[in-house]
Amino acid sequence: MTDPVTTTSSMSLEPIGVVHSCYGEKFGIPRQPGLAPSARSRIEVLPPYDRDEAFRGIEDFSHLWIIFAFHANGRTHWVPTVRPPRLGGNRRLGVFATRSPFRPNPLGLSAVRFEGLRREGKKLYLELSGGDFLDGTPVLDIKPYIPYADRQDEATGGFAQQAPETRLEVRWSEEATRSLEGLARNDALALKKLVQESLGLDPRPAYIRDDREFACLLDGWNLRWRIDDQGVQVLCCSEKIATGNILTKKVGQIN
Question: Which of 27, 45, 90, 161 lies in the 20 to 30 Å Cα band around 178?
Answer without folding.
Answer: 27
